[in-house]
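Why do we care about 3D structure at all? Because function follows from shape, and shape follows, mostly, from sequence. That is the central idea of this module. The next example makes it concrete: a single protein chain, its amino acid sequence, and then its structure expressed as C-alpha coordinates.
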Amino acid sequence: MSTDTKHKDLEGLRIDRSASVADTSPSPWAKTFILAGVAVLVLAGIAALAYRFIGGSAPEVEVVRATAEGGDIGGVVLTATGYIIPHHKIEANSKVTGRVAWIGVEKGDKVKEGQVLVRLEDQEFRAQYDQARGAADSARAQLEQLQHGSRPEEIQQAEHNLSEARATAANDKITLERTRTLVTQGVLSQQALDDANGKYEASQQRVHSLEQSHQLAKIGPRAEEIARAQGSLTQAAGQAAYAKSQLDATVIRAPITGTILDRSVEKGELLTGQFASAARPVFSLANLEDIQADLDVAQDDFAKLTPHQKAVVTVDAFPDLKWDGVIAEVSPEANRQKATIEVKVQILNPDSHLRPEMNTTVHFIAEENKSANAQSAGAYVPTAALRDADGKKYVFIVLNDKAMKRDVKVLSQRSGGGLVSGLNGGETVITTAPEGLKDGDKIKIKGQS
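And the structure:
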Protein backbone atom coordinates (compact mmCIF):
# COMPACT_ATOMS: atom_id res chain seq x y z
CA MET A 1 0.00 0.00 0.00
CA SER A 2 1.31 3.38 -0.92
CA THR A 3 2.10 6.12 1.57
CA ASP A 4 -0.63 8.45 0.23
CA THR A 5 -3.24 5.80 0.67
CA LYS A 6 -2.22 5.20 4.30
CA HIS A 7 -2.32 8.95 5.00
CA LYS A 8 -5.89 9.21 3.72
CA ASP A 9 -6.99 6.28 5.85
CA LEU A 10 -5.50 7.89 8.99
CA GLU A 11 -7.22 11.18 8.21
CA GLY A 12 -10.54 9.35 8.06
CA LEU A 13 -9.99 7.89 11.55
CA ARG A 14 -9.16 11.28 13.23
CA ILE A 15 -11.80 12.68 15.69
CA ASP A 16 -13.21 16.12 14.93
CA ARG A 17 -12.98 17.73 18.42
CA SER A 18 -14.58 21.06 17.45
CA ALA A 19 -17.79 19.31 16.46
CA SER A 20 -17.73 17.28 19.70
CA VAL A 21 -17.44 20.40 21.85
CA ALA A 22 -20.34 22.04 20.07
CA ASP A 23 -22.55 18.97 20.54
CA THR A 24 -21.96 18.64 24.35
CA SER A 25 -22.71 22.28 25.31
CA PRO A 26 -26.21 22.73 26.93
CA SER A 27 -28.98 24.31 24.91
CA PRO A 28 -30.64 27.61 26.00
CA TRP A 29 -33.71 25.72 27.24
CA ALA A 30 -31.51 23.46 29.39
CA LYS A 31 -29.81 26.48 30.94
CA THR A 32 -33.23 27.97 31.77
CA PHE A 33 -34.39 24.76 33.50
CA ILE A 34 -31.13 24.53 35.47
CA LEU A 35 -31.42 28.14 36.72
CA ALA A 36 -35.09 27.62 37.63
CA GLY A 37 -34.19 24.52 39.66
CA VAL A 38 -31.48 26.38 41.54
CA ALA A 39 -33.93 29.23 42.29
CA VAL A 40 -36.52 26.78 43.64
CA LEU A 41 -33.93 25.20 45.93
CA VAL A 42 -32.84 28.61 47.23
CA LEU A 43 -36.44 29.72 47.91
CA ALA A 44 -37.17 26.45 49.69
CA GLY A 45 -34.16 27.00 51.93
CA ILE A 46 -35.25 30.55 52.74
CA ALA A 47 -38.78 29.37 53.53
CA ALA A 48 -37.42 26.67 55.82
CA LEU A 49 -35.28 29.20 57.67
CA ALA A 50 -38.22 31.63 57.95
CA TYR A 51 -40.48 28.94 59.36
CA ARG A 52 -37.80 27.94 61.83
CA PHE A 53 -37.10 31.44 63.11
CA ILE A 54 -40.58 32.99 62.73
CA GLY A 55 -43.29 30.38 62.58
CA GLY A 56 -41.50 28.02 64.95
CA SER A 57 -40.40 30.70 67.43
CA ALA A 58 -42.63 29.35 70.21
CA PRO A 59 -40.50 26.88 72.18
CA GLU A 60 -41.73 23.38 72.88
CA VAL A 61 -42.33 22.41 76.49
CA GLU A 62 -43.30 19.30 78.37
CA VAL A 63 -46.16 19.48 80.83
CA VAL A 64 -47.92 17.53 83.57
CA ARG A 65 -51.18 18.11 85.39
CA ALA A 66 -50.98 19.27 88.99
CA THR A 67 -52.79 16.85 91.30
CA ALA A 68 -55.03 18.17 94.02
CA GLU A 69 -54.17 16.81 97.45
CA GLY A 70 -56.69 16.29 100.17
CA GLY A 71 -59.50 15.85 97.67
CA ASP A 72 -61.85 14.86 100.47
CA ILE A 73 -62.73 18.17 102.05
CA GLY A 74 -62.82 17.80 105.81
CA GLY A 75 -65.44 19.29 108.09
CA VAL A 76 -68.16 19.62 105.45
CA VAL A 77 -71.48 20.42 107.10
CA LEU A 78 -73.51 20.81 103.91
CA THR A 79 -73.13 20.32 100.18
CA ALA A 80 -75.36 22.16 97.72
CA THR A 81 -75.50 22.49 93.94
CA GLY A 82 -76.32 25.44 91.75
CA TYR A 83 -74.92 27.65 89.02
CA ILE A 84 -72.14 30.18 88.56
CA ILE A 85 -73.55 33.68 88.06
CA PRO A 86 -72.03 37.16 87.77
CA HIS A 87 -72.58 39.27 90.86
CA HIS A 88 -73.96 42.08 88.72
CA LYS A 89 -75.21 41.41 85.19
CA ILE A 90 -76.16 44.49 83.19
CA GLU A 91 -78.52 44.48 80.22
CA ALA A 92 -78.19 47.77 78.35
CA ASN A 93 -80.97 49.21 76.19
CA SER A 94 -81.08 52.14 73.82
CA LYS A 95 -82.64 55.30 75.30
CA VAL A 96 -83.75 56.50 71.87
CA THR A 97 -85.23 54.98 68.75
CA GLY A 98 -82.77 54.80 65.87
CA ARG A 99 -81.02 52.62 63.33
CA VAL A 100 -77.71 50.96 64.18
CA ALA A 101 -74.88 52.56 62.22
CA TRP A 102 -71.85 50.84 63.83
CA ILE A 103 -71.09 48.04 66.31
CA GLY A 104 -67.67 47.75 67.91
CA VAL A 105 -67.87 44.60 70.06
CA GLU A 106 -68.45 40.88 69.79
CA LYS A 107 -69.54 38.34 72.36
CA GLY A 108 -66.68 37.61 74.77
CA ASP A 109 -64.86 40.92 74.23
CA LYS A 110 -63.45 42.65 77.30
CA VAL A 111 -64.47 46.31 77.52
CA LYS A 112 -63.65 49.26 79.76
CA GLU A 113 -66.10 51.60 81.42
CA GLY A 114 -67.09 54.37 79.01
CA GLN A 115 -65.91 52.52 75.90
CA VAL A 116 -68.11 53.12 72.83
CA LEU A 117 -69.93 49.91 71.90
CA VAL A 118 -72.72 50.95 69.49
CA ARG A 119 -73.49 54.07 67.44
CA LEU A 120 -76.91 54.94 66.04
CA GLU A 121 -77.66 57.19 63.07
CA ASP A 122 -77.79 60.70 64.57
CA GLN A 123 -78.65 63.15 61.76
CA GLU A 124 -82.17 63.92 63.02
CA PHE A 125 -81.06 64.23 66.64
CA ARG A 126 -78.21 66.55 65.68
CA ALA A 127 -80.59 68.82 63.70
CA GLN A 128 -83.02 68.99 66.63
CA TYR A 129 -80.19 69.90 68.99
CA ASP A 130 -78.95 72.65 66.65
CA GLN A 131 -82.46 74.09 66.47
CA ALA A 132 -82.94 74.04 70.24
CA ARG A 133 -79.50 75.52 70.84
CA GLY A 134 -80.29 78.41 68.44
CA ALA A 135 -83.53 79.18 70.30
CA ALA A 136 -81.63 79.20 73.60
CA ASP A 137 -78.98 81.57 72.20
CA SER A 138 -81.73 83.93 71.00
CA ALA A 139 -83.46 83.93 74.40
CA ARG A 140 -80.14 84.55 76.14
CA ALA A 141 -79.41 87.55 73.91
CA GLN A 142 -82.87 89.00 74.62
CA LEU A 143 -82.34 88.69 78.38
CA GLU A 144 -78.89 90.28 78.21
CA GLN A 145 -80.34 93.17 76.22
CA LEU A 146 -82.94 93.85 78.90
CA GLN A 147 -80.46 93.43 81.76
CA HIS A 148 -78.03 95.93 80.24
CA GLY A 149 -80.80 98.53 79.78
CA SER A 150 -80.71 101.35 77.24
CA ARG A 151 -77.44 102.23 75.64
CA PRO A 152 -75.96 105.70 76.23
CA GLU A 153 -76.56 106.52 72.57
CA GLU A 154 -80.26 105.68 72.93
CA ILE A 155 -80.59 107.94 75.98
CA GLN A 156 -78.77 110.74 74.15
CA GLN A 157 -81.08 110.34 71.14
CA ALA A 158 -84.12 110.61 73.45
CA GLU A 159 -82.68 113.81 74.94
CA HIS A 160 -82.19 115.32 71.47
CA ASN A 161 -85.76 114.46 70.45
CA LEU A 162 -87.06 116.02 73.67
CA SER A 163 -85.05 119.22 73.15
CA GLU A 164 -86.33 119.50 69.59
CA ALA A 165 -89.92 119.04 70.73
CA ARG A 166 -89.53 121.69 73.44
CA ALA A 167 -88.10 124.18 70.90
CA THR A 168 -91.02 123.52 68.58
CA ALA A 169 -93.49 124.02 71.43
CA ALA A 170 -91.87 127.33 72.39
CA ASN A 171 -92.06 128.54 68.80
CA ASP A 172 -95.73 127.47 68.55
CA LYS A 173 -96.46 129.43 71.74
CA ILE A 174 -94.97 132.63 70.25
CA THR A 175 -97.00 132.09 67.09
CA LEU A 176 -100.16 131.62 69.18
CA GLU A 177 -99.60 134.92 71.07
CA ARG A 178 -98.98 136.81 67.82
CA THR A 179 -102.06 135.35 66.20
CA ARG A 180 -104.24 136.25 69.23
CA THR A 181 -103.06 139.92 68.98
CA LEU A 182 -103.79 140.08 65.27
CA VAL A 183 -107.23 138.55 65.75
CA THR A 184 -108.02 141.16 68.42
CA GLN A 185 -107.00 143.88 65.95
CA GLY A 186 -109.24 142.32 63.30
CA VAL A 187 -106.37 141.50 60.97
CA LEU A 188 -106.82 137.69 61.18
CA SER A 189 -109.94 135.55 61.54
CA GLN A 190 -110.93 133.47 64.55
CA GLN A 191 -110.07 130.33 62.54
CA ALA A 192 -106.41 131.36 62.42
CA LEU A 193 -106.40 131.69 66.22
CA ASP A 194 -107.99 128.24 66.63
CA ASP A 195 -105.37 126.67 64.31
CA ALA A 196 -102.47 128.27 66.19
CA ASN A 197 -103.92 127.16 69.53
CA GLY A 198 -104.35 123.52 68.33
CA LYS A 199 -100.79 123.40 66.98
CA TYR A 200 -99.41 124.66 70.29
CA GLU A 201 -101.38 122.07 72.28
CA ALA A 202 -100.07 119.28 69.97
CA SER A 203 -96.52 120.46 70.52
CA GLN A 204 -97.02 120.35 74.28
CA GLN A 205 -98.39 116.77 74.06
CA ARG A 206 -95.35 115.70 72.04
CA VAL A 207 -93.03 117.24 74.62
CA HIS A 208 -94.83 115.35 77.38
CA SER A 209 -94.59 112.04 75.46
CA LEU A 210 -90.88 112.46 74.75
CA GLU A 211 -90.24 113.32 78.41
CA GLN A 212 -91.80 109.98 79.38
CA SER A 213 -89.71 108.12 76.76
CA HIS A 214 -86.56 109.82 77.97
CA GLN A 215 -87.33 108.88 81.55
CA LEU A 216 -87.99 105.22 80.61
CA ALA A 217 -84.76 105.10 78.62
CA LYS A 218 -82.85 106.19 81.72
CA ILE A 219 -84.70 103.82 84.07
CA GLY A 220 -84.39 100.77 81.79
CA PRO A 221 -86.79 97.82 81.26
CA ARG A 222 -89.31 96.76 83.90
CA ALA A 223 -88.48 93.93 86.31
CA GLU A 224 -91.42 91.95 84.93
CA GLU A 225 -89.94 92.06 81.43
CA ILE A 226 -86.60 90.79 82.70
CA ALA A 227 -88.33 88.01 84.65
CA ARG A 228 -90.29 86.97 81.54
CA ALA A 229 -87.09 86.93 79.49
CA GLN A 230 -85.41 84.79 82.17
CA GLY A 231 -88.29 82.31 82.01
CA SER A 232 -88.02 82.11 78.23
CA LEU A 233 -84.30 81.44 78.50
CA THR A 234 -84.81 78.70 81.10
CA GLN A 235 -87.36 76.99 78.87
CA ALA A 236 -85.15 77.22 75.77
CA ALA A 237 -82.09 75.99 77.69
CA GLY A 238 -84.07 73.01 79.00
CA GLN A 239 -85.17 72.07 75.51
CA ALA A 240 -81.58 72.34 74.27
CA ALA A 241 -80.33 70.15 77.16
CA TYR A 242 -82.98 67.54 76.37
CA ALA A 243 -82.04 67.55 72.68
CA LYS A 244 -78.38 67.18 73.65
CA SER A 245 -79.19 64.19 75.88
CA GLN A 246 -81.07 62.57 73.00
CA LEU A 247 -78.10 63.16 70.70
CA ASP A 248 -75.68 61.73 73.27
CA ALA A 249 -77.90 58.66 73.65
CA THR A 250 -77.16 57.66 70.05
CA VAL A 251 -73.73 56.61 71.34
CA ILE A 252 -74.09 53.57 73.63
CA ARG A 253 -71.16 53.11 76.02
CA ALA A 254 -70.10 50.38 78.43
CA PRO A 255 -71.49 51.22 81.89
CA ILE A 256 -68.82 49.14 83.68
CA THR A 257 -65.55 47.37 82.98
CA GLY A 258 -66.33 43.76 82.15
CA THR A 259 -66.95 41.13 79.48
CA ILE A 260 -69.67 41.13 76.81
CA LEU A 261 -71.91 38.13 77.54
CA ASP A 262 -74.36 38.63 74.68
CA ARG A 263 -74.96 40.98 71.73
CA SER A 264 -78.43 40.94 70.24
CA VAL A 265 -78.30 43.56 67.46
CA GLU A 266 -76.72 43.89 64.05
CA LYS A 267 -75.78 46.85 61.87
CA GLY A 268 -78.81 48.30 60.11
CA GLU A 269 -81.38 47.12 62.67
CA LEU A 270 -83.90 49.58 64.07
CA LEU A 271 -83.76 49.88 67.86
CA THR A 272 -86.69 51.17 69.88
CA GLY A 273 -86.35 53.34 72.96
CA GLN A 274 -86.03 51.69 76.37
CA PHE A 275 -89.56 52.70 77.41
CA ALA A 276 -91.19 51.21 74.34
CA SER A 277 -93.00 47.88 74.64
CA ALA A 278 -90.88 46.32 71.87
CA ALA A 279 -87.54 47.41 73.35
CA ARG A 280 -84.92 44.68 73.76
CA PRO A 281 -81.42 44.68 75.28
CA VAL A 282 -78.66 45.81 72.95
CA PHE A 283 -76.05 43.82 74.87
CA SER A 284 -75.44 42.30 78.29
CA LEU A 285 -72.16 42.38 80.17
CA ALA A 286 -70.73 41.55 83.58
CA ASN A 287 -67.49 41.75 85.53
CA LEU A 288 -66.27 38.15 85.54
CA GLU A 289 -63.83 38.93 88.34
CA ASP A 290 -66.85 39.38 90.61
CA ILE A 291 -68.84 36.14 90.41
CA GLN A 292 -70.92 34.02 92.75
CA ALA A 293 -72.40 30.56 93.13
CA ASP A 294 -76.21 30.73 93.19
CA LEU A 295 -77.67 27.89 95.27
CA ASP A 296 -81.08 26.68 96.44
CA VAL A 297 -80.63 25.26 99.95
CA ALA A 298 -83.39 23.07 101.33
CA GLN A 299 -85.18 24.60 104.28
CA ASP A 300 -84.40 21.49 106.36
CA ASP A 301 -80.64 22.14 105.90
CA PHE A 302 -80.68 25.90 106.24
CA ALA A 303 -80.00 25.82 109.99
CA LYS A 304 -76.57 24.27 109.30
CA LEU A 305 -75.36 27.53 107.75
CA THR A 306 -74.15 30.70 109.46
CA PRO A 307 -73.61 34.21 108.08
CA HIS A 308 -70.31 34.60 106.19
CA GLN A 309 -69.61 30.86 106.43
CA LYS A 310 -66.61 29.62 104.45
CA ALA A 311 -67.03 27.22 101.55
CA VAL A 312 -65.14 25.38 98.82
CA VAL A 313 -66.50 25.73 95.27
CA THR A 314 -66.04 23.24 92.44
CA VAL A 315 -67.49 22.99 88.93
CA ASP A 316 -68.34 19.97 86.81
CA ALA A 317 -66.17 21.19 83.94
CA PHE A 318 -62.96 21.17 86.02
CA PRO A 319 -63.46 18.67 88.85
CA ASP A 320 -59.81 18.89 89.94
CA LEU A 321 -59.98 22.66 90.59
CA LYS A 322 -61.27 24.29 93.76
CA TRP A 323 -62.02 27.89 94.71
CA ASP A 324 -62.54 29.52 98.08
CA GLY A 325 -65.91 31.05 98.84
CA VAL A 326 -67.93 32.73 101.55
CA ILE A 327 -71.67 33.26 102.00
CA ALA A 328 -72.38 36.76 100.69
CA GLU A 329 -76.17 36.89 100.46
CA VAL A 330 -79.14 35.00 101.87
CA SER A 331 -82.58 35.65 100.45
CA PRO A 332 -84.96 37.17 103.02
CA GLU A 333 -87.76 35.12 101.48
CA ALA A 334 -88.13 31.37 101.04
CA ASN A 335 -89.45 29.64 97.92
CA ARG A 336 -92.79 28.08 98.88
CA GLN A 337 -93.05 25.79 95.84
CA LYS A 338 -89.54 24.32 96.10
CA ALA A 339 -89.21 24.59 99.91
CA THR A 340 -85.77 26.16 99.48
CA ILE A 341 -83.93 29.35 100.39
CA GLU A 342 -81.65 31.07 97.89
CA VAL A 343 -78.03 31.45 99.05
CA LYS A 344 -75.29 33.18 97.10
CA VAL A 345 -71.64 32.36 97.75
CA GLN A 346 -69.02 34.92 96.72
CA ILE A 347 -66.03 33.29 95.00
CA LEU A 348 -62.90 34.86 96.47
CA ASN A 349 -60.30 33.75 93.92
CA PRO A 350 -62.04 33.52 90.51
CA ASP A 351 -60.10 32.91 87.32
CA SER A 352 -60.72 32.31 83.63
CA HIS A 353 -61.89 28.73 84.21
CA LEU A 354 -65.17 29.94 85.70
CA ARG A 355 -67.95 31.01 83.36
CA PRO A 356 -71.53 32.09 84.09
CA GLU A 357 -74.18 29.35 84.06
CA MET A 358 -71.68 26.56 84.80
CA ASN A 359 -72.93 23.80 87.10
CA THR A 360 -71.30 24.12 90.51
CA THR A 361 -71.08 22.20 93.77
CA VAL A 362 -70.40 24.07 97.01
CA HIS A 363 -69.12 22.42 100.20
CA PHE A 364 -69.76 24.47 103.33
CA ILE A 365 -67.03 24.04 105.94
CA ALA A 366 -67.57 23.87 109.68
CA GLU A 367 -65.99 26.77 111.59
CA GLU A 368 -63.77 24.53 113.77
CA ASN A 369 -62.28 22.81 110.69
CA LYS A 370 -61.30 25.93 108.75
CA SER A 371 -57.70 26.05 109.96
CA ALA A 372 -57.09 22.35 109.47
CA ASN A 373 -58.59 22.47 106.00
CA ALA A 374 -56.47 25.47 105.07
CA GLN A 375 -53.28 23.68 106.13
CA SER A 376 -54.03 20.53 104.17
CA ALA A 377 -55.03 22.30 100.95
CA GLY A 378 -52.51 22.11 98.14
CA ALA A 379 -51.46 20.40 94.94
CA TYR A 380 -48.71 17.94 94.07
CA VAL A 381 -46.19 18.87 91.35
CA PRO A 382 -43.02 17.03 90.26
CA THR A 383 -39.61 18.37 91.21
CA ALA A 384 -38.86 19.28 87.57
CA ALA A 385 -41.70 21.80 87.62
CA LEU A 386 -40.38 23.73 90.64
CA ARG A 387 -38.14 26.70 89.91
CA ASP A 388 -36.28 29.05 92.22
CA ALA A 389 -35.71 32.81 92.10
CA ASP A 390 -33.98 34.53 95.02
CA GLY A 391 -35.04 31.77 97.35
CA LYS A 392 -38.69 31.89 96.32
CA LYS A 393 -40.31 28.96 94.56
CA TYR A 394 -42.50 29.30 91.49
CA VAL A 395 -43.86 27.24 88.62
CA PHE A 396 -44.98 27.97 85.08
CA ILE A 397 -48.53 26.97 84.14
CA VAL A 398 -50.02 26.92 80.65
CA LEU A 399 -52.87 29.35 80.03
CA ASN A 400 -54.05 30.34 76.55
CA ASP A 401 -50.85 28.97 74.91
CA LYS A 402 -48.68 31.12 77.18
CA ALA A 403 -46.37 30.36 80.10
CA MET A 404 -47.74 32.11 83.19
CA LYS A 405 -45.64 32.42 86.32
CA ARG A 406 -47.31 31.33 89.57
CA ASP A 407 -45.62 31.76 92.96
CA VAL A 408 -45.92 28.71 95.22
CA LYS A 409 -44.82 27.60 98.67
CA VAL A 410 -43.60 24.07 99.31
CA LEU A 411 -45.70 22.63 102.14
CA SER A 412 -44.04 19.22 102.25
CA GLN A 413 -41.66 17.07 100.22
CA ARG A 414 -43.03 14.01 98.46
CA SER A 415 -41.41 11.28 96.43
CA GLY A 416 -40.38 12.86 93.14
CA GLY A 417 -41.96 16.19 93.95
CA GLY A 418 -43.69 18.27 96.58
CA LEU A 419 -47.01 19.49 97.94
CA VAL A 420 -47.30 23.20 97.24
CA SER A 421 -49.76 25.97 98.06
CA GLY A 422 -50.75 28.49 95.42
CA LEU A 423 -52.26 25.86 93.12
CA ASN A 424 -55.71 24.32 93.38
CA GLY A 425 -54.90 21.20 91.37
CA GLY A 426 -55.78 20.53 87.77
CA GLU A 427 -53.47 23.22 86.34
CA THR A 428 -51.21 22.31 83.42
CA VAL A 429 -47.68 22.74 84.81
CA ILE A 430 -44.53 23.03 82.68
CA THR A 431 -41.79 20.56 83.65
CA THR A 432 -39.26 20.88 80.83
CA ALA A 433 -38.66 24.16 78.99
CA PRO A 434 -35.79 26.04 77.32
CA GLU A 435 -33.59 28.28 79.44
CA GLY A 436 -34.75 31.88 79.73
CA LEU A 437 -38.49 31.17 79.62
CA LYS A 438 -40.30 34.24 80.96
CA ASP A 439 -43.76 35.05 82.26
CA GLY A 440 -46.15 35.58 79.34
CA ASP A 441 -43.97 33.88 76.67
CA LYS A 442 -45.84 31.94 73.99
CA ILE A 443 -45.16 28.21 74.13
CA LYS A 444 -46.08 25.02 72.29
CA ILE A 445 -46.78 21.80 74.12
CA LYS A 446 -44.66 18.95 72.85
CA GLY A 447 -46.68 16.43 70.86
CA GLN A 448 -49.45 18.87 70.04
CA SER A 449 -49.81 20.46 66.60
